[in-house]
Amino acid sequence: MKGPEDLSQPWRTWFPGETRFRSVVLCGPLIDDVGSLYVTTCDAIYKLTAEGRHLWEFRTNSSLADCPSLMGSRLFGADKAGHVFAVDVETGGLHWIRWYAQGTGDTSYVESHRGVVVYEGNNSQP
């Protein structure tokens, strides 16, 4: 994968339905192999084109814990209520969700690689 050659065309985007304080970005965006961006705020994950066009958003019933992870056609993430989920990267639709921990505290992570998803939760008692 090759990075951009021309950074002279910056763009801005506003996340649909977000207010000033709800659109706090939790981490830097994930970028997939075709240049799409996955931006995680406290309440949603947004997929944007490389030009900044909004493609979809995914929301959970609880605040999101941290940055999601990309593997194949899935985006894996966690919420602060202890749920881990998989989202289809093409549609933004929920593929599965499971409860694994009492919660996450202030920080958590989900990483994925070669078919394995690793999640760090708090007081894990499924």
From TrEMBL:
<dbReference type="InterPro" id="IPR011047">
    <property type="entry name" value="Quinoprotein_ADH-like_sf"/>
</dbReference>
<protein>
    <submittedName>
        <fullName>Uncharacterized protein</fullName>
    </submittedName>
</protein>
<dbReference type="InterPro" id="IPR015943">
    <property type="entry name" value="WD40/YVTN_repeat-like_dom_sf"/>
</dbReference>
